[in-house]
Amino acid sequence: MRWVDKVLNQRVIYNVSQLSKLAGVSVRTLHHYDEIGLLQAKRNSANGYREYNQHDLAKLQQILIYRELGFSLVDITNVLSAEDYELISVLKQQQDLLQKRITESQSMLSSLNDTLAVLEGRENYEIYFSGIPKEKAQRWKDMMNEKAGDEKMSVMYQRLSKLSKAENKALYQDVERWMQGFIAVMDKPVDSQEVQLMVKQHYQMTEQMFEKTMGDEFKGLDVELYQHVMDLLKSDQVTIEIYEHYKSGITEHLYQAMNHFKQKNF
């Protein structure tokens, strides 16, 4: 701070109220800094009021910066009066403390982001049950929670949070339209052109959902993953009940149609 004296106009005088407004600190804070010797004011010889010059303003700005960095008032006093080699040591110590604080803050922010994603994902999750009777929807959700567990459900919520409400609603509407389209061709053989066109749409819809919710984790809807999707129609009670809600017998017809599609396209 010694160089500041050479470049600042010492003749500009501020009273305590003016300095308070310029620096954005309270008058009480300035009185305290004066009392502990951190920023000592000169006294007007005529009225005894505190007075400050531009050097004091610059010094106050330095104090405020150090306070923002987490320095104690004692540390700031030492820094402002330190020789260069002492100052480097003090600042390096503070650098280490700040880096630790940044790491802790990043960890807290990551945790907060995860929590927010779960909450947003839960809201999006509800969209897919909007056309289902309330008691039936709640039963399916309870079954899914019990089977998957909290950790896997949280992952699913976080993935759903990657999409906006509008995007989730659009996907839900696509599913509803597809269901009605598939029901309309259930009287046809699984290898018919009409059924296979609907199965192809189902494949594309499933792949799109994985891409949007899994991001870089998703490596494509290959035969192994497709078989897993098919197996849900045989082994997962919630999946079976959801499909059967729309039309009795739909799960078996879809499974056989997907199996034909798999044999022809993989």
Overall description:
This protein has 266 residues and is an all-alpha fold. Among the domains are: 4-80, Multidrug-efflux Transporter Regulator, Chain: A, Domain 2; 163-266, Globin-like (Orthogonal Bundle). The protein has helices at residues 4-7, 16-23, 27-35, 54-68, 73-81, 84-127, 134-160, 165-184, 193-214, 223-235, 237-246, 250-265; strands at 14-15, 42-43, 50-52. Strands 1-3-2 form a 3-stranded antiparallel sheet. α9 (193-214) packs across α12 (250-265), α10 crosses α11 (237-246) and α10 (223-235) packs antiparallel against α12 (250-265). The chain is rod-shaped and about 105 Å long. The N and C termini lie far apart (74 Å). Residues 1-9 have low confidence and may be disordered. One of its GO terms (molecular function) is DNA-binding transcription factor activity. This is MerR family transcriptional regulator. It comes from Parashewanella curva. Residues 13-82 form the HTH merR-type domain.
What does the overall shape look like?
rod-shaped
DSSP strand content: under 5%
Cα distance, first to last residue? Answer: 74 Å
What's the gyration radius in Å?
34 Å
H/E element sequence: HEHHEEHHHHHHHHH
User: How is the CATH topology of the domain at 163-266 named?
Assistant: Globin-like
- Strand elements, count: 3
* Spatial strand arrangement across the major sheet: 1-3-2
Task: Specify the number of helices.
Answer: 12
